[in-house]
User: Which sequence fits this backbone?
């Protein structure tokens, strides 16, 4: 990427104008532009809890960067069911509201150099059967994850895959059979949304993608024996009962201007899981309830992490339209949905890392808003510095062109390098961790480093700063309940 001294081309100007255009949501709130910082677990701290100083610094940087919406990393509604030991949680303690309020103020602050502050959404989440006791250390290894079924993720076929999945999930998940337990989960989601509103956040996003609990409820593979939940109208499909109760609960307990969003898979990309036909039916039904302001489209689960591909962002593909992972799905779905503000705005996330591609996705209505994940860890000011910067020529406004030093070595060592039967989850994890470490760097006031070797990240950012200094005591308290 190079800064040009020449005047921007008409094409650049048109694209920038389109991406900069505001969008009104069904609840009346206006998104200042079309760029969304997608939800990314920040990797800061240890043992759960509300945002820390590192989160404040990181979100301040994003807030200055010209994003239209900033979505937080997954905040887990149950502190014993984490996706990572660094996840945000919402303990019932007065300091929780205080910390989330501080974070919202850091983003909405009035002296921001950008003309309009971004909207801030809290992604609320439950990892379901993918919560690994071994990795997240929030419960003893023999305590199961919970899910609609009894299972453990299949990370790949063969003995190496068997080994990894049994190390990460020593026990299969415990199936939830009791309606009261489902209603308790509904309550936790609704309480989290109420807290977010009290803390000054603009809304919440329900994480119903990537094989997490709400996605497991939608999938025929992980929820084969769906039972009705109480107080749901008869015409609501069984598989949507859980989402309906949560959305209804949030709707009844928050103001109209509080944004309700959901992230769903267009496909699970696993045999027997949710497919594109089922997903488009689900989305059409969700839209028909008129409860949602935003729907984000992603895809994949831990067994098949499509949301993390391509693992190496450096693309040798000259045809940029093929970098957008799920655009074929949204392009065929969107003509049947009312455009915002009559219907929810659609965010498309995954591989949309250059201005031209972002603009063409909006022009062709593959989406109304574009979600950007990984590059936002390296370029917190990505919208204002690159995508919306008229000094950056069209062909240079590309942010995905980097390789992770040492990642190939790690993938080989961990059995993930073979494109056929390598463990995709490990490959995705290698990339995800490196990006988390970049966010940790911003959090402690240091610039991200695109040349950081993976092993240096593991030793310095992870082991030293987040594990050793991030609060082993906090983790111990969390484990002891
Ligand atoms: C470090 C990291 C953490 C992530 N954490 C979350 C998360 O908490 N919730 C979520 O829905 N997606 C999460 N994702 C997936 C991103 O939101 C996004 O869907 C994915 O990175 C694809 O977008 P991209 O190609 O622009 O990176 C994460 C991705 C990364 C790289």
Assistant:
């Amino acid at each position: 990427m190079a800064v040009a001294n020449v005047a921007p081309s008409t094409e650049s100007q048109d694209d920038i104008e389109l991406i900069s255009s505001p969008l009104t949501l069904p609840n009346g709130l206006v998104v200042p532009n079309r760029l969304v910082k997608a939800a990314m677990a920040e990797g800061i701290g240890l043992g759960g809890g509300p945002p820390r100083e590192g989160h404040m610094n990181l979100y301040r940087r994003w807030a200055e960067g010209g994003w239209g919406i900033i979505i937080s990393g997954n905040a887990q509604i149950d502190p014993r069911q984490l996706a990572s030991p660094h996840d945000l949680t919402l303990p019932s303690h007065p300091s929780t509201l205080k910390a989330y309020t501080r974070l919202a103020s850091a983003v909405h602050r009035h002296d921001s150099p950008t003309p309009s502050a971004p909207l801030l959404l809290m992604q609320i989440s439950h990892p379901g059967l993918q919560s690994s006791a071994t990795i997240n250390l929030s419960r003893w290894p023999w305590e199961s994850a919970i899910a609609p079924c009894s299972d453990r993720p299949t990370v790949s076929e063969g003995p190496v895959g068997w080994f990894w999945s049994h190390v990460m999930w020593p026990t299969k998940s415990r199936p939830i059979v009791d309606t009261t337990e489902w209603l308790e989960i509904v309550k936790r989601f609704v309480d989290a949304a109420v807290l977010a509103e009290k803390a000054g956040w603009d809304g919440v996003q329900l994480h119903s993608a990537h094989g997490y609990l709400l996605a497991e409820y939608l999938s025929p593979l992980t929820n084969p024996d769906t039972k009705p939940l109480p107080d749901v109208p008869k015409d609501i499909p069984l598989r949507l009962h859980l989402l309906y109760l949560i959305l209804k609960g949030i709707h009844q307990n928050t103001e109209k201007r509080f944004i309700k969003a959901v992230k769903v898979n267009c496909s699970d990309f696993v045999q027997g899981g949710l497919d594109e036909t089922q997903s488009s039916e689900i989305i059409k039904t969700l839209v028909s309830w008129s409860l949602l302001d935003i729907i984000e489209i992603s895809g994949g689960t831990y067994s098949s992490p499509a949301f993390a591909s391509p693992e190496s962002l450096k693309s040798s593909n000259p045809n940029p339209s093929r970098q957008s992972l799920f655009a074929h799905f949204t392009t065929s779905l969107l003509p049947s949905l009312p455009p915002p503000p009559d219907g929810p705005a659609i965010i498309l996330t995954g591989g949309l890392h250059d201005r031209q591609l972002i603009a063409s996705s909006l022009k062709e209505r593959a989406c109304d808003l574009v979600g950007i994940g990984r590059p936002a860890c390296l370029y917190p000011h990505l919208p204002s510095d690159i995508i919306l910067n008229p000094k950056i020529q069209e062909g240079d406004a590309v942010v995905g062109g980097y390789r992770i030093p040492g990642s190939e070595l790690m993938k080989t060592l961990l059995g993930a390098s073979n494109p056929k039967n390598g463990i995709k989850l490990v490959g995705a994890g290698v990339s995800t961790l490196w990006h988390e470490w970049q966010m940790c760097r911003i959090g402690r006031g240091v610039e991200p480093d695109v040349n950081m070797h993976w092993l240096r990240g593991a030793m310095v950012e992870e082991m030293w700063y987040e594990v050793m200094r991030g609060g082993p005591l906090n983790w111990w308290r969390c484990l002891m309940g």
